[in-house]
Amino acid sequence: MEFTFFSLLNGLSYGLMLFMLSSGLTLIFSMMGVLNFAHASFYMVGAYLAYAISSQIGFWPALVIAPLLVGIIGAAVERFGLRTVHKWGHIPELLFTFGLSYVIVEVVQLIWGRAAVRYVIPPELSGSLFTAYSTTFPMYRGFMMLIALLMLLAIYLMLTRTRIGLVIQAALTHPNTVETLGHNVPRVFMLVFGGGCALAGLAGVIGGNAFVTEPSMAATVGSIIFVVVVVGGMGSLAGAFFASLLIGVMQTFAVALDNSLVTLFGRFGVDFTPDTPGYEVLKLSISDVAPILPYLLLVLILIFRPMGLMGKREG
Amino acid sequence: MMTSNTTTMKYSPLNLGRWLIWSFFALVLIIAPMIFDKGASLSILSQMGTIMIFALAYNMLLGQGGMLSFGHAVYSGLGAYFAIHAMNLAGNGAIWMPLPLIPLIGGVAGMFFGVLFGYVTTKKSGTTFAMITLGIVELVHACSLMFPGFFGGEGGIASNRVYGEPFLGITYGPQIQVYYLIAFWLFISTIGMYAFTQTPLGRVINAVRDNPERVEFIGYNTQRVRYMTLILSAFFCGISGALAAINFEIVTDENVSAFRSGAVLLFTFIGGVGFFFGPILGAIVGIFLTVVLGDFTKAWLLYLGAFFIIVVMYAPGGLASLIMLNLRVAKFGRFKRIFPSLAAVSVSSVIMLLGVVLFIEMLYHFTLESLSYGTERQLFGFTVDTAAPTGWLVAGAIFIVGLVFFRMTKKSFQLVWGDVNTEIEELIKGGKA
Q: Is ipTM strictly over 0.95?
């Protein structure tokens, strides 16, 4: 019970952080048709900027300034890079962001070095939130969940209740009509791209100190969020939400379980020895296969439900 | 390309141009190690050969099929693993398999996994295909660390390519013999892949790239066309993986990683996806940038990434298209007109590049090395103190001079270039009409 409860909580907080990343990716994709390969790089930039700012003027200003800076960088990338490539179609756009991800990692190493930096949780958030069944739940995990939920609410309100949100929604499906009505669609694109990057930056600010702030952090999370976006259904925000939670919870449970097929069959009195054919596969515990579970899910989803969990049509 | 001037089909039993080009290619492969015979150049040439096969196979998907794959290292990497196990088994005497045939094992293994994974990945096209292939490569990479028995864990699987009785004194111990083995397979594979572009399947995959909907309408199953192309491409990838295994005598998990796929994608695109020979150029430039430049500077990945971005933004046809466009201008006898402005633009770009390179090198030294090696370093024969402002000012000044010069020359070049190409296009149209 204790294990289930805490794994569920940890999984939810990890899943919510995945959603902070995949929501920006999904927004950008559904709006511009661009799969931003450098999205996880912006997450990393957010973490590093937060480290730099928080070491000077503290964590709370960094929480606001770092995502804004990342958003500005993202908008500049759209304005001066992507817009030039746009006329050649979606594949060159994807390739552009792919090249960008290389450059960003190198520039980050150029500025902050190749080793991990000491970006720590601020002291006012480092206590425990509550204790249940003699296990404590760290306050920072709760803070992460709170920020993610607030962000979810803010996106929802902005997309449905504000003028710019309505323009964005309209530009998703009918960009030409929106342009005819006098809205500057390229500028809307720039705002969406910058906004999506800012969300990734925010995830970096609160994820960087919960995990490790290092140059490889973009690669670690990068492929997972692509899995989230495909599993949820390309371009579906709600799908991305459920897929993030699913993958977050699944990963958290998996790393903690060391049952394997050998122990499972052992329960029924069937014992395997190292001489059994296929013992290498049978002896693998669930925690051993945890890294491949998201990708297995991806393959299974594509075989049995190609449009994704919440996708509307086949791409 | 050679016969683009003739519009009617005619029976030509001897295509002289084609024979000349292929003989020239073979000749280059034979004499290359005699010209570049210093130091590590032989191993660099061998590496280039394996990457050329890889990039050409990759271009079967990206250039000819319009399928952006991030998962290509799976086929070459698994081919390499099977090849190295075959080498070990043959070395033990468990199976009979002479070394020159090992690439076939890699190719068949790559093909097998192409059949397996391609079934899932080719269900989709475009961006979704790209993401699924990324998922597959991560899946295989994660698996490679789970099964140390086959993949050798972090250390990889090592082997020895010198086994069995030497045939005509060839043991494959010396690098030169391995080079010629790679060159032989490169030649065969290049012919095979070029022949593929001439087959009905090779033609239909071009159509699928350009307009899948129409291809569906005239009765082809686009998914099956993509699937079959991927299987063939995986075969050649497996060959290249096996040759790399023979060359390095070790295969590690890096061979099946997304990083490896990304590298070959960069090379292929830089070379140019629109022309058959583009990936060959890309492999030369790419290996030069990674291996040779990697000896001089730690910033090679930054240069490679930035170069790739510039190619994507300003020359999406890659180096091959730049060469072919200039050749076309020369063919119509107008190269003299563009030469002055082309030279001016090139010189100013080089000046600008020099400034940027100086800046990046000093920054790298300052942030990553100055603590352990002191703030001074050698750059282009000068000793620069990266803590003092002088070097930075010089780098900045060079960059600004280059930039101003570039801005001045860019406009007139664009004008002349546009004029000349419009004239040429009109000539071509006039000739055809």
A: no
